[in-house]
Amino acid sequence: MCIADGRAAGPKWTKWLLNEMRAVRGVGDFGIRKAFPVSTQKNIAIKNGWVTRDALGEWHVNCLAIGDGWTMGVMTRYPVSLGYEYGARICQNVARQLKS
């Protein structure tokens, strides 16, 4: 909640940061937000990250979402052969289960 309540970015930048996170589209728009109805998704701020760790043979896909009065984070590690979409689905499935 430190991003949403202003502790992370301070009073000057919090609103801007959350708006930027709500505006994520394209390849970075996956995971937790996709577990919610389309009408709700526009109000959820997200930050997703994905990288292959070649030395480990792993993808690391991480998802953060901030909604109205809640935050959720999912961190994944799995074999590189499964692709980053696999991690995106994990994030979405975890969110779907937690919000039910």
| Global geometry | globular
Radius of gyration: 14 Å
CATH architecture: 2-Layer Sandwich
Largest sheet: 3 strands, antiparallel
Poorly predicted runs are none
How would you characterize the overall build of this protein?
This protein is α+β, with helices and mostly antiparallel strands. Helices cover 33% and strands 29% of the residues. The chain has three helices and three strands, in the order ααβββα. The chain has helices at 10-22, 38-41, 84-99; strands spanning 45-53, 58-67, 70-79. It has a three-stranded antiparallel beta sheet. Strand 2 and strand 3 (70-79) form a beta hairpin. It starts with 9 loop residues before the first helix and ends with a helix. 22% of the residues are buried.
Task: Detail the topology: elements first, then pairings.
Elements: H1 10-22, H2 38-41, E1 45-53, E2 58-67, E3 70-79, H3 84-99
Antiparallel strand pairs: 1-2, 2-3
Short summary:
The protein is α+β, with helices and mostly antiparallel strands.
Features:
100 residues; alpha+beta; Double Stranded RNA Binding Domain; 3-stranded antiparallel beta sheet; 3 strands; globular
